[in-house]
Structures are given as C-alpha cells and as structure tokens.
Write a structure and sequence with these properties.
The protein has about 280 residues and is an alpha/beta fold. It folds into 2 domains: about 30-115, Leucine Dehydrogenase, chain A, domain 1 (Rossmann fold); about 140-260, NAD(P)-binding Rossmann-like Domain (Rossmann fold). Helices cover about 40% and strands about 15% of the residues. Strand 9 and strand 10 (about 240) form a beta hairpin. Helix 6 (about 140-150) packs across helix 10 (about 260-280). The structure holds NADPH dihydro-nicotinamide-adenine-dinucleotide phosphate (NDP). NADPH dihydro-nicotinamide-adenine-dinucleotide phosphate binds near residues 164, 166, 187 and 209. NADPH dihydro-nicotinamide-adenine-dinucleotide phosphate binds near residues 170, 188, 189, 208 and 209.
Length: about 280
Amino acid sequence: MACIIDGKELAKKIRTSLKKEVDELKEQNIFPKLAVIMVGDDPSSKIYVRNKSKACEEVGIEYEEYLLNDETTMEELVDLIDKLNNDDKIHGILVQSPIPKHLDINKAFRTISEKKDVDGFHPTNVGKLCLGQNTFVSCTPFGIMKILEEYNIEIEGKNAVVIGRSNIVGKPMLQCLMSKNATVTVCHSKTKNLPEIVKNADIVVAAIGKAKFVTEDMIKEGAVVIDVGINRGEDGKLCGDVDFENIVNKAGYITPVPGGVGPMTIAMLMNNIVKAAKEMYR
Ligand code: NDP
C-alpha cells in the first residue's frame, strides 16, 4: 500500500514555522498584509478565499478583501490594483480567478506589481522561474515541490509526467521539476497515447479537472502520484483527478483529495506573502 501523503499536517507545520517568522517581523514593525480582490460571486472562489483568510489569521498575516460586483469594468479593476500597488502597508495582492468573462484576467495579473505578486502569475515572475532566478513560484507547484522534498522523494533523473498545461499549474510544474533534474513530459488534451506515457512515469502530477481521469492501469508499480484536481464525483463528494481507491495499492506515494495538495497551495501562498514582506524592506 502506498504512503498517503498528509498535506494537511505538512501545511500546518509550515504555517507554524511561518508564524514565528511573522512574529519576528512584527518586532521590527513590519506587519505582513495580503489584499485579495474577488469579482462576482463564484461559489468555489468564496470557499478558496475563506480558506486563505483563515490561514492568514493563523499565521498572523493581516488580510483585506475587496469584493467587486459583476459589472466592474477593467478600468475600475486596474485602478484598484494600482492603488494597492502604491500602498506601502500591502505586501501581497491577488486576484481570485475566475473573474467575469468581460474582464481580462491576464491584464489583471500583469497589473499587479511583480514585487507583490504572491501568486507568481506576473509574466516577469513566470520568466524568472524559467530562468532559474529568485521569484515568487506559483503556489500549487511550489507546494508539490515541498511535498516531494519533505517526503525525501528523489527527483533527479526520474521520469515525471505532468498532465495538464495550464499557466497556473501545469507549466510552472514543468519548470519546477525540470529545475530539479527530472525528465519531464507534459500531456494535454491533444496528447496521443496518454496512458502509455503516464505508465512510464516515476512521478505523475495530475492537473486536469476531470474526476478520476487517471486510472490504475496507467500507473507504474511504486510511482509517486500527485493529485491536484478538485472535482465533485457522481456521488457528490469531493474527489481528485486520480482514481485514489484503485491506485492506492499500486503507487509508492499518493496525495489524497481533500487533504493533499490543496492545503499545501495555501501554505505556500502564506510563504510567498512573508517573502514579499521581507523583500520589500531589503
Ligand atoms: P485548466 O482547466 O486550466 O487546465 C486543464 C488542463 O488539463 C489543460 O491543459 C487541458 O489540456 C488538460 N486536459 C483536459 N482534458 C484532458 C484530457 N482528456 N486529456 C489530457 N489532458 C486534458 O485547469 P487548472 O490547471 O487550473 O486546474 C486543474 C485542476 O486542478 C482543476 O480541478 C482545479 O480545480 C484544480 N486545482 C487545484 C488546486 C489546488 O490547490 N489543489 C489549485 C489549482 C487548480 P488543453 O490545454 O489541451 O486544453
């Protein structure tokens, strides 16, 4: 049976250690603060935002929320981001996606100052990640790298397969794994022979958004299986992109959903806010 990775526990450990760092910053009169912008009232976003605010509270990071209505214009959104960019008391800014279709999410991401871009979505920070420079790493891939590190999972020379090529998960995941010397293959909806490719993987990262897409027959005995997906199964329960029940006996390591990658994503957001606060006064 696979080792079931406890992302919840690991995230808690990271938050505890970050809290100490935040307490030290406060002694120097630095009060790390996050500003979150939400446009519209997407129900999943509300849950994510609530989880982020709870994590901030636990770590001692100040938190400010801007709830904009569906009719907000791009100009209004850009004006708000500019105002927050120029506010010395704010160290991190994030725009919760999705936002209404008439707004340009990429423009929103690139309007956020790269120094406050705690989600790591600004083109400059994405470029720095590709070049192996100090940057804000997108929180989900960053959390997955932390899991691999904490569980002493060897990456160098391994075959890693990332399923999904989104800007926020798949692409930065490729960079992170490649920078640790894995041989990385990225699969997407146009990939041919996907099961054969995945079968060759020592490390599989599934970030597709389709319930139980990765099945037992695709997994090599002893592989490390990281499940990013958050879906509702036919039974209405939360499930990942991986068929956990049938893979758990074959994999070497596996992350559950919930309790795997999700909490680590938020812990790494906290990490990025503390980093932003420290770097602002350097
Ligand atoms: P996107 O929808 O942006 O990307 C999905 C990717 O999956 C695309 O690259 C798409 O390919 C690929 N894909 C879709 N169908 C197939 C298929 N049949 N075969 C192979 N590849 C396919 O999703 P995200 O990356 O934003 O998120 C993925 C999942 O992870 C979602 O469930 C999301 O909720 C979850 N998530 C979880 C987080 C966490 O903290 N746990 C954080 C972020 C996301 P193509 O590019 O060709 O369309």
